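As described in the Methods, two query proteins were run sequentially through the folding procedure within a single session, without resetting any intermediate state between them. The first query and its resulting structure tokens are shown here.
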Amino acid sequence: MRTLLLALAVVITVSAASPVGQQPPTGAQPPQPPKAKPEDTEVWEPVPPVVTPGATNDAAPSDAIVLFDGKNLDQWVSVKDKTPATWTVADGVLTVDKKGGNIETTRSFKNYQIHVEWRVPPGVTGEGQARGNSGLFLASTGTGDSGYELQILDSYNNKTYVNGQAASVYKQSPPLVNAMRKPGEWNVYDVVWTAPTFNADGSVKTPARVTAFHNGVLVQNDFELSGETLYIGKPSYKAYDRAPIKLQAHGDPSPPISFRNIWVRELK
């Protein structure tokens, strides 16, 4: 009996001295993750393609499609009947033929960057929307003025509704600022257009967006369109995939405006 009690006492003593789980020494630090290295956040592929810029920031880069280089209208047709465009080309400049109507590109586009230079003639007459009116339609979705218009207008000391002045997304978004040059001087639009996309049933999947610079000044900052730009009524979308780019021959009575140096870069 005495031997049994002694053995039990030894077992109890050993058990009390041996904890169930191994505890770290007081003050010990947990394991540390590997030390971060600069290489952890470096991305090497895919390598961006090389694009040779133009001799100036206004000149077309190597991957651009030149829509008007001052020589001819080979890249343009009449919106009305798709016959060759009849606007006037002289001295490297394209001038609107109001009787000839709107013109559009022979090619269709989706997402792109476009450069357009335009000029209101010196001594232009009229006021409001009847002075130097035209439009750059970023997607021409039908005849007439169907599509998505970035307004062209003489907005140099010429009051009109602000969502219809130069560099507005017509009837949807006024420009952030008025960067207009006076009549007789060339204006420049540099625009990034993201076309809308549609579901199989024609409903909108992603809306159209536009960022635009007027004479180097930001005037539209990733603006989300509510649909096509309309003269009367609320904007709405109609499904399309790719579309031409359109220039407007507005019917206002003022002398016609002119264009030069138009090029576009398709974006993926």
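Immediately afterward, the second query was submitted; its sequence and tokens are:
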Amino acid sequence: MYRVGILFILFSSILWSPFSNVHAQAQDTASGTRTVLIAFDGAQPEVIERLIRIGKLPRNGGFARLIREGTKAEGMTSVLPTVTATNHISIATGAYPERTNIPANTFHDTETPLTATISGFSAPIDAETLWEAAKKQGKKVITIAFAGADGRGEDRRGNQTLGFGVRVGFSTVKLMDGTHFDAASANLWNLGGVACEFKKANLGTATANQVFFQNPFNSAERIFVNVLACDTIFDGKERYDTAFFDFDKNLSNGFIARMHEGYWAPFELPLLAPPDPAFPDLAKGKIGSWVKLLKFDPALAHSISIWATSPTMSAFRRLSWTISTTLLASGRRSRTFST
């Protein structure tokens, strides 16, 4: 019997990253068959193909390889109406809206006053989802920001879930002036086993050059992140290729992330959600953000920029690749379908 893992991912915007067939095949050989379902919300095929043709998307990138090496349908009939909640719940269940009871992104619940509405993203799903069926068969399921899998109850999460729509802040691009990095600040760092031919660090929390996150539960508090630029190539030329992000400037006891330009990394912040009687598991969780190092000038002559995605709140144990479980337990109530 094969052990199957299923991963559901919903991207609300178009993202691309390279992937390796060799790595995927090696994982499948070691762990059994794995199935990945990815939904790109609002990404029309003809738009993707045109962006590839004109070079706006890489011709050897993820989308191009899926089109070239995968199975491509010339046309499909979607569930009506063609909105996010309705179609993604149908994808997750294999059922039409008359069975899922999700007829729109927002609709009227007949058990409520006439002027009241309910969100199709949070309304109870009356058909069995793929993650429910897979868990019943003993399969491991991971859901990442997939509509319907928001963690609000056992039927709305996998074994591990990063909940859809569960965030405590907004994404932002942060800029650091490369000329405000110096060697004296870098000498305050404990590098542990890291070797740098040249090193510079940002000047500290007193300057606008500092990377920080706002505490979503206390707007007056900031979580500062220190940045070290390291030249790891010992060739006598001062060209910085690696950025370390850390809270205490001590790499010997670990660090938040080691990044190169274009890399993504999870930033786990030293915050705990405040106690909430309605959601007790959240107080055990962590808050974090996925961050991309957008620009990193090897000479530190220009601005360094990072993109911090919306901070999310998570509970329970982390996976080895830092996807966390988000649990927002809530009761399920009966409801009558309404168009």
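The longest strand covers residues 222-231. We note this only descriptively and draw no conclusion about the first query from it.
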